[in-house]
């Protein structure tokens, strides 16, 4: 405050005029040389709410704050004694009962005789008004987003100006509140500020550390004699830089946390006055606003960085980046946004009994190596406890925590300089513990709320990365197994989006079609490989598939570029996306060329076996056919002789000769048919298909086998359905089946020793449009253990059998599109059935 003599000079001109005294602006009062307070002017009486009588009776002392009265009287008497102008700071009570700080200027007044008889003081509110102006200016700087150091420098300058002889500073703490991050003190020696930056905050560090830790003001009136911080070296540091006293006030945030300290240094023996306390309190509040604004901006900036880096991590995971690369980036992110922290990640081995994998790019290398392969359990360290309890574990001071001393983790951590560890479990989606994420510090301390949230969030991202990697590895193994299985089975898979005609083919599917897997597959490309004879049917199947979801199975041939032919079997099932109406087919294509060639080879072998079977029956067949040929030949000779006799008589019997000639032609045709069947049976030619009446074919076989039946004393009974439809097939082959079944039935009856066995032959049509023929005998039947194998090649129940006959029969019937089977009841004979489809126009 300006202490010039202008107010005093003004008073000297007007003090003898009571009216001027009353009208003087501001709060004015007088004091006699003995220290007693005299008159109060009208503005002061109005401010205090006094009447003239009350002011005369009570005096100014009744308006001064009770705590300031004694100090004010001592100060006024000192001013009177010195004879010089002086300042007086007191709080005055307003008419509404509230107290406001004022600074009064005491001015000496000379009497008419030149002697100092009365002192007069003018109450001035200049400092309060100036302080309010300064506060508004600081708040405007904060609101405008001016840099925190600039705001705090301005605040310190205001304090140094308001508190004469003071040097001010602001110590800003880091987000954890554990260390001094920045010292702003433009009036202090730079060397002093530099030493304080980075210092740990504690009650033992100095008055500022104590104020922040205890969240109360700490006053040091004389640094040289206060021994509370001698061990820290702070008193020597302060004295070296000429600092005699220190008034430290904690800067408290809106959440109740200490975010810094406001320190005011003056000469030795000084303590703050109430008015100074008021100024310090108000500017400390503004400092808290400025620091919180800065922290808010920093938190937003940090949140933006965190969000961007989290997005990058998730993109790395989505792109399939390697797990070590993702986890190293995650650790770097923790260390970037968390002050003086180092991140490490541990994962369980396959059986969960030890730490198998350790990541910590900026941790001491020896620590990671020491953790690799160590047992993993609750007592193995904070990470083990966090993983098994599935909850964060905070160890602010490793050295003071003895929980893991027995298992050696504490010694490992301390030997590498680690003093604090904050662990969070890494859990899978099903809450299975995968490992733990740990944040380490080289000094003791607890995490801030932000750091706890950061650790929890990044632990979740680590779990995503681990599960994604494990899922991808499992998928790759599955794909490898599937690919190998497809290769071994010559089976490829595909998907077909019908609307877009987009195909997705497996590697084996490309190999089957001999397509380049770098070129997209199209329907036209597939069609170019299909055999021309099979293409129309395949296109028909594709058109049917487009109409809606369903299942289809199709076989076709491929003509490869080298003109070789492949046989394919295609199966597919359609699914429809209800939400989007998209039709898609998932299918498989199998190369059955080898199987088809094997079937053809087997068919050829069966044909050979059929020939062998027919040759085996040659004796019986030849005897029967010879018997049948002898009859028509004998008839031909007899009819020819009769014809000659009829023609030799006179007159010739022309009509009789004509009938005899017709019978000769009939017997000749019958003999020719028998010979044709014999040649077809043993010529190994492909069968000739024709319309066959199975009733007629059956009668012919019975006629051929009649001599054996008579010799074996076996009776044949027939139940041939009337008007059964014709079937299409090879007549001779179908008769061979009937003959083989009759021969087997005859031999079975003969072997049983029966003298009057019988065979029953029936024909009928069934509900499936088939003609069914059954051959039943009265022999001993077939063992139930053998009935499922009697149609297999080389399996026989006969003592001298070859196991060929029934196998050939099965092959013939299946080639005709039918089925053959047997039924038996041991001791009651056997029945053999075969069916042949009815010919449809």
Task: Characterise the protein shown here.
The protein is of the alpha+beta class and 841 residues long. It has 26 helices and 27 strands. The strands form six sheets. A five-stranded antiparallel sheet has the order 2-1-5-4-3, with helices on both faces. The chain has a five-stranded antiparallel sheet with strand order 7-6-10-9-8, with helices on both faces. Strands 12-11-15-14-13 form a five-stranded antiparallel sheet, with helices on both faces. It starts with 5 loop residues before the first helix and ends with a strand. The relative contact order is 0.04.
Can you lay out the helices and strands and say which pair or pack?
Blueprint: H1 6-14, H2 18-23, E1 27-32, E2 37-40, H3 42-48, H4 52-58, H5 69-82, E3 86-93, E4 99-110, E5 116-124, H6 126-143, H7 148-162, E6 167-173, E7 180-184, H8 190-196, H9 207-214, E8 218-220, H10 234-240, E9 245-252, E10 258-266, H11 274-319, H12 323-337, E11 342-348, E12 355-359, H13 365-371, H14 382-389, E13 393-395, H15 409-415, E14 420-427, E15 433-441, H16 449-489, E16 491-497, E17 502-505, H17 507-513, H18 523-529, H19 535-546, E18 551-559, E19 565-577, E20 582-591, H20 593-616, H21 618-648, H22 654-682, E21 689-692, H23 694-704, H24 706-711, E22 715-720, E23 727-730, H25 731-751, E24 758-765, E25 770-777, H26 805-815, E26 819-824, E27 830-837
Parallel strand pairs: 22-24
Antiparallel strand pairs: 1-2, 1-5, 3-4, 4-5, 6-7, 6-10, 8-9, 9-10, 11-12, 11-15, 13-14, 14-15, 16-17, 16-20, 18-19, 19-20, 21-23, 24-25, 25-27, 26-27
């Amino acid at each position: 405050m300006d202490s010039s003599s202008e107010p005093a000079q003004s008073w000297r001109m007007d003090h003898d005029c009571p009216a001027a005294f009353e009208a003087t602006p501001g709060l004015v009062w007088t004091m006699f040389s003995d220290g007693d307070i005299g008159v109060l002017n009208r503005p002061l009486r109005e401010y205090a709410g006094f009447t003239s009588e009350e002011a005369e009776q009570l005096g100014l002392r009744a308006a001064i704050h009770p705590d300031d009265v004694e100090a004010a009287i001592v100060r006024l008497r000192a001013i009177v004694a010195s004879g010089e102008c002086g300042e007086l700071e007191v709080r005055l009570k307003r008419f509404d009962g509230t107290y406001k700080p004022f600074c009064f200027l005491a001015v000496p007044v000379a009497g008419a005789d030149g002697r100092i008889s009365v002192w007069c003081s003018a109450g001035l509110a200049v400092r309060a008004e100036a302080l309010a102006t300064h506060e508004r200016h600081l708040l405007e700087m904060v609101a405008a987003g001016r840099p925190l150091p600039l705001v705090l420098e301005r605040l310190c300058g205001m304090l140094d100006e308001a508190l004469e002889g003071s040097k001010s500073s602001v110590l800003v703490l880091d987000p954890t509140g554990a260390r001094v991050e920045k010292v702003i003190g433009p009036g202090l020696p730079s060397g002093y500020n530099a030493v304080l930056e980075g210092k740990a905050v504690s009650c033992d560090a100095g008055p500022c550390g104590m104020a922040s830790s205890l969240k109360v003001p700490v006053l040091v009136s004389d640094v040289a004699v206060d021994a509370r911080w001698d061990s820290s070296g702070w008193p020597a540091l302060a004295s070296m830089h000429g600092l005699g006293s220190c008034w430290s006030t904690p800067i408290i945030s809106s959440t109740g946390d200490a975010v810094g300290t406001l320190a005011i240094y003056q000469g030795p023996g000084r303590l703050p006055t109430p008015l100074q306390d008021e100024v310090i309190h108000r500017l400390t509040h503004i400092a808290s606003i400025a620091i919180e604004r800065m922290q808010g901006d920093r938190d937003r900036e940090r949140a933006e960085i965190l969000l961007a880096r989290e997005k990058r991590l998730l993109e790395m995971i989505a792109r399939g980046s390697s797990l070590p690369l993702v986890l190293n980036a995650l650790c770097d992110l923790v260390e970037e946004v968390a002050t003086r922290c180092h991140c490490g990640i541990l994962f369980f081995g396959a059986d969960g009994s030890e730490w198998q994998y350790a990541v910590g790019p900026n941790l001491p290398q020896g620590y990671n190596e020491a953790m690799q392969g160590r047992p993993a359990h609750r007592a193995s360290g904070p990470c083990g406890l966090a993983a098994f309890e599935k909850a964060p574990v905070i160890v602010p001071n490793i050295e003071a925590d003895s929980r893991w001393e027995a298992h050696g983790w504490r010694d490992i951590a301390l030997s590498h300089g680690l003093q604090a560890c904050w662990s969070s479990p890494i859990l899978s989606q099903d809450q299975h513990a995968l490992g733990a994420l740990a944040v380490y510090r080289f000094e003791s301390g607890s995490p801030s709320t932000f750091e706890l949230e950061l650790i929890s969030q990044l632990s979740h991202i680590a779990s995503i990365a681990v599960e994604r990697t494990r899922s991808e590895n499992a998928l790759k193994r599955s794909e490898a197994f599937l690919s190998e299985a497809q290769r071994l089975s010559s089976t490829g898979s595909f998907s077909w989006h019908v609307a877009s005609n987009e195909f997705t083919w497996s590697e084996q599917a490309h190999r089957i079609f001999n397509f380049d897997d770098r070129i997209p597959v199209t329907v036209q490309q597939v069609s170019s490989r299909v055999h021309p004879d099979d293409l129309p049917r395949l296109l028909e199947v594709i058109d049917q598939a487009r109409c809606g979801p369903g299942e289809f199975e199709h076989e076709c041939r491929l003509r490869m570029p080298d003109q070789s032919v492949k046989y394919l079997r295609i199966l597919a099932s359609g699914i429809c996306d209800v939400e989007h109406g998209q039709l898609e087919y998932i299918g498989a294509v199998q190369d059955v060329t080898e199987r088809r060639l094997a079937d053809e080879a087997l068919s050829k072998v069966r044909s050979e076996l059929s020939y062998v079977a027919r040759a085996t029956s040659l004796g019986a067949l030849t005897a029967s056919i010879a018997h049948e040929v002898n009859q028509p030949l004998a008839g031909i000779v007899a009819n020819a002789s009769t014809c000659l006799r009829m023609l030799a008589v006179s007159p010739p019997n022309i009509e009789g000769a004509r009938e005899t000639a017709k019978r000769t032609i009939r017997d000749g045709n019958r003999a020719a048919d028998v010979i044709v069947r014999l040649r077809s049976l043993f010529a190994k030619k492909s069968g000739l298909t024709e319309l066959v009446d199975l009733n007629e074919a059956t009668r012919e076989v019975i006629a051929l086998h009649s001599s054996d039946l008579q010799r074996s004393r076996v009776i044949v009974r027939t139940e041939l359905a009337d008007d059964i439809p014709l079937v299409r097939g090879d007549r001779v082959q179908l008769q061979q089946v009937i003959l083989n079944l009759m021969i087997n039935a005859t031999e079975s009856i003969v072997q049983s020793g029966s003298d009057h066995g019988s065979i029953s032959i029936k024909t009928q049509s069934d509900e499936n449009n088939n003609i069914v023929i059954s051959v039943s005998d009265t022999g001993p039947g077939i063992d139930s253990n053998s009935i499922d194998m009697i149609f297999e090649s080389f399996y026989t129940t006969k003592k001298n059998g070859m196991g060929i006959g029934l196998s050939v029969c099965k092959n013939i019937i299946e080639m005709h599109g039918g089925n053959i089977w047997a039924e038996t009841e041991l001791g009651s004979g056997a029945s053999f059935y075969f069916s042949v489809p009815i010919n449809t126009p």
